Amino acid sequence: MSSLDDILKSRRDTRHFTTDEVPDEVIQKALQAGHWAPSVGLTDATRYYIIKSDEVKSAIKNLFLDYNKKAEALTDNPEQKELYKSLKLEAIEEAPIGLIIAYDRSVLNQFTIGTIGSNEAVKFSSVCAAQNIWLSLTEQGYGMGWVSILNYFQFKKILDLPENIEPLGYFCIGKPATNYGNQPMLQQLHWKQKSETADSKEINEIHQINISGFDLKTESKIDKKTDFASLLQEKIDSKTKPVGSLGTLETLAFQIASIFETLDPKIINPNIVVFAADHGIANHGVSDYPQDVTRQMVNNFLEGGAAINIFCKQNNIDLSIVDSGVNYDFPTNTKLIDAKIAKGTQSFLHVPAMSETELQLCFEKGKSIVENIAEKGSNCIGFGEMGIGNTSTASVLMSILTGFPIEECVGKGTGINDQKLLNKQKILEKALENYSGQAELMEQLAYFGGFEIMQMAGGMLSAFENKMLILIDGFICSTAFLIASKINPNIMKNAVFCHCSAEKAHLKLLEYLDAKPVLNLDLRLGEGTGCAIAFPILKSAEAFLNEMASFESAGVSRK
Known about the structure:
It comes from Flavobacterium johnsoniae (Cytophaga johnsonae). This is Nicotinate-nucleotide--dimethylbenzimidazole phosphoribosyltransferase. This protein starts with a helix and ends in a 5-residue tail after the last helix. It has 21 helices and ten strands. The chain is an alpha/beta fold. It has helices spanning 4-10, 24-35, 54-72, 78-85, 91-94, 120-139, 152-159, 185-188, 226-237, 248-260, 293-303, 307-314, 356-375, 390-402, 418-434, 441-448, 451-465, 475-487, 504-512, 529-547, 551-554, and strands at 46-51, 97-104, 143-147, 165-174, 271-277, 318-325, 337-338, 380-386, 469-472, 495-497. The protein has two domains: 4-182, NADH Oxidase (3-Layer(aba) Sandwich); 267-540, Rossmann fold, CATH 3.40.50.10210.
């Protein structure tokens, strides 16, 4: 072939191969073409793994076949099911060579021009490498087929790929057994017709983004509904016990009934939502854990292995996991709520963490998530979080919104030592000194905020609007509540602060909010675990109010 156009037109996603061997010089020439592909910031992040072993190929094929059945079940169209079955995976074993093209996430741990604005650029570089390899093989008379990976976790596990290596896909390489009628295979099978020309449009004007936000509300007097409150208090006091003897349970029972506006309140379909995101400030050594732990823990949530999974299962609480802005692309077949704003915030040590548009999107997405839960019949929602570096974000936000000195708002987070704590405090002090923006709430939130914290704040506001019982976890969640309370002070009447964490600043923040926590167990895990652990106490408050005998019904004399 002499013409680039001919090579481009004849490149096919090859699915059927001959048994001809692929000479080493062909593979080496193709890999060199891949290496010549653009590399963002010269990171050289693309990695290649060659597979010739029949045993390894067979294991990979079996893994793919298992998930192929699940993919087939995704369509209800019988014709499409049959067409899907015709897409065999024999090529994995037929092809003489298997190739894994991957990118190395560890390059993101260094400051690299080109990856700061978008971490996805590293992946895009590897995609360019894959295309170069494809074209080189085509020019040499060979073919390559891309098989999408449906289960990254097991795929990486059976091949013992390092944690930082992220495969784009599994590629089959060999001599094509057919040219598919000189057209893409899916088109030959009448699955999909490829358009003749590229879809191209010219953009010649700018459209403004208009996203409705939450208006600040001034403190207002809450209607007391005197008659209802008196009846409710009388019901509590008339139970067969000394007045006030159930302590906090009586306070909770009164609160729950008041929120649900009924003398016979019932918690229905409780749900804990864990919002996860990455933070640019984490790149400055404020945590003992690398940023990638956020992604690893989200996978742990999805696999059911985290503390919050266990406690929710124990107490029959639904659990929802939200990707608010994790620095990772999760497979689309995971049970994950996709609310990603971006792949982590920027570092507020030097620049705003997010734009004001991103801030508004956070509130909108948090609101939408909670509204969807409320529409499914839930009247009780707990908030949890996951994000390496988010105690630093919460500390700065607490300092700004309460006026407390930053040293009173900084704690050990994931358990850093005293020297790292001092360094963390100095970094956050420097970030506050560098801030030269306005003293307006929304500008401050955009400059220092985290995606998951702002989505929680928006979700809490939505929960209040939907008359839900709002369960608040530890320090980070309490900071999100602080933000929500600055926007709508009335939200306080719906909030239950489930525990006082071991994070130093949490007690001070609870005192600022005039909040009395239900538990004090020295927890500092996050994830919403405090909400799940405190939930049985709320059920006890509900149970005594609804089921405990009154003096009158039991024939017991009052004092």
